[in-house]
Structure formats: C-alpha cells, structure tokens
Design brief:
- This protein folds into 2 domains: 90 residues, no CATH class; 55 residues.
- The longest helix is centred in the first third of the chain and has 20 residues.
- A hairpin with a 2-residue loop joins strand 1 and strand 2.
- The two termini are 36 Å apart.
- It has a 4-stranded antiparallel beta sheet with strand order 1-2-3-4.
- The chain is of the alpha+beta class.
- It contains 7 helices and 4 strands, in the order H-H-E-E-E-E-H-H-H-H-H.
- Helix 4 packs parallel to helix 7 and helix 5 crosses helix 6.
Length: 177
C-alpha cells in the first residue's frame, strides 16, 4: 500500500491535537513524560514500512514541524532519512516507501511473538496452528530464505499476541497459559 504525504499529515494533525488537548489538562508540576504515558495517543506515530523489500521503521514527528523519519529496522536503529512533510519534494521522497499489506509479517516478528510474547516452543505453536510438523514453524522463522507467513497465520499470531487464546491453548514454557 502506498504511503502518502496526506496520510502522514493527517496522523500528524491527530497527534498534535491529542498532545495539545492532554497537555492543557496536565496539572502544574506533573512531569510531561509521565502525563503522556497516562494518556496514550489515539493513533500510532511509529509503524513498519518497506523500501525495496527491506523492512524499515517509520515515525511521524509531531512535537515540532511535521517530519517523517525513516529508520533501519534492527537492534541498533539508524536514521536513514528525515522528510519534511511540508516540503514540495516530500511526495517524491515518500514514493520509495510503502506500508505492509494487511497480514504481512516478517520471520523476525513471527519468531518474536512465538518466543517472547507467547513463550511457546515451535512444537507447541505447530500444534496450536494445526501443523503436523514443527518444521513448518521453523521454515517461517529462519533468517535466510524464510517461507512467507500466510496471511491467516499472521492474523492469528497478532490475535494471540493481543491476548486471544483458544480453549486448547498449551501451557507456555515459562509456565503461563
């Protein structure tokens, strides 16, 4: 899906209006960062994007002028580009980036949800997803040449991450259900 300047500006406007509204309600002396944490924004300011098949992280900056920052998607993020959304050349710069299609999931995201959020082994997740063999899970998680994660599996993984559990959910390695 194409990423447009108008879409990013609408996010900027919503974030800015939210920030102005909650800060007008902030009690004197209350720390700004703490107040923001207690009043989360109604829309995400950071999200996953793609550039020529490479996963990136995009972020709308709303505490100053409207900027869009593009970062590497890694353990040590690095700023790639900062785009002034009011600049006439912004649309051309944005043409290099796209939003993930609904259901797109990377092998890293899949593995992180399985291990860190769900605490399941590959065998347990294979059972939950109704795969006969945990090698199916391994193929989706491998770093080199991973198998594409089917859209329905990506949606299920996100539902599980959000807290949904079917009746036959296994006990996780860490002992939680």
């Amino acid at each position: 899906m194409k990423l447009t300047v108008e879409h990013l500006l609408s996010i900027y406007r919503e974030l800015k209006a939210h920030e102005d509204r909650i800060m007008s309600l902030r009690p004197n002396g209350h720390p700004k960062a703490d107040w923001r944490m207690k009043h989360p924004a109604p829309v995400a300011s950071s999200f996953r994007i793609y550039e020529d098949g490479k996963e990136r992280s995009g972020r709308v900056i709303h505490d100053t002028l409207p900027f869009f920052e593009v970062w590497t998607f890694s353990e040590k993020p690095k700023l790639i580009e900062r785009i002034d959304l009011k600049d006439p050349s912004a649309e051309a710069a944005m043409s290099n980036y796209r939003l993930p299609a609904p259901g797109d999931m990377t092998s890293l995201e899949f593995r992180t949800i399985r291990k860190n959020r769900l605490g399941l082994t590959q065998q347990q997740l294979a059972t939950v997803l109704d795969y006969a063999n945990p090698l199916n899970i391994s193929a989706m998680e491998r770093e080199t040449n991973p198998r594409k994660i089917p859209t329905h599996v990506a949606r299920l993984m996100r539902a599980y991450e959000a807290g949904y559990r079917p009746a036959d959910w296994p006990v996780a390695e860490n002992g939680s259900a």
